[in-house]
Amino acid sequence: MFRKLATGVALSAALLMPLAACGSSADKSGGTAKPAASPSPKPAELLSAAVTKTKAVNVSFNLDGGDEDTTGAYDVTKKMGTVDLTNAGEQMHLVVAEKDLYMLGVKDLGGKNLHMVVAKFPAEHGMLIVADPVVALAMLEGAVTVTSPTPNSYQGTIDLAKVTAATPGGAKMLEGLIKAAGAKANAVEFTAKVDAQGYVSEFNTRFPGADQGKDMLYNITFSNFGAPVTVTVPTAKLVEAPAASYQP
């Protein structure tokens, strides 16, 4: 089943110890036809517009998976990001590229940088939760019901089978989530918020069965919309992850 990120990170590091549409109508009142006001956009249309706007810019994010707090930033043009987290008191830094993951700062690596290939991850691997840091925006595009209980606040259900991820890592994560959810995959409940500038600022859900048979909490917030993001892929002191690191 889908493991949490810290579990995946810990396993990888431990294994490396030996290696150091609108209509219109007419109002005929008063004898003169006048164009009527356009109907208010539906909640689904408003949320879709916010998703489109957010997907077009760089963002910072904070991901709460229940047990660990993960922060980072994403460069939408390069489809690359950075991820920082703490595991067992140890600070770790990940560089997320479209087809690769790099783990830096792990003591057991002895100053080396771990390289992992996204294509080698099985769909249930815990590292995939950060392989596409903005996959939540793609998920909102798979919403099949949307309501807005208060202005700029949305809730509804997502059909995971209707979600199209922008990266291989996101696609693999979705594959694992759909498998874990089973019959519940077509009605995953969510809430979301949009800020005053029209950007998606928050997405919350629970993925059915994704935490070793239990529901997995997934709360992510976005900020710093459009700010510059610097991502540097390590090219020196690289060590390839052993085959065992890819086991779920």
From TrEMBL:
<keyword id="KW-0732">Signal</keyword>
<protein>
    <recommendedName>
        <fullName>LppX_LprAFG lipoprotein</fullName>
    </recommendedName>
</protein>
<feature type="signal peptide">
    <location>
        <begin position="1"/>
        <end position="26"/>
    </location>
</feature>
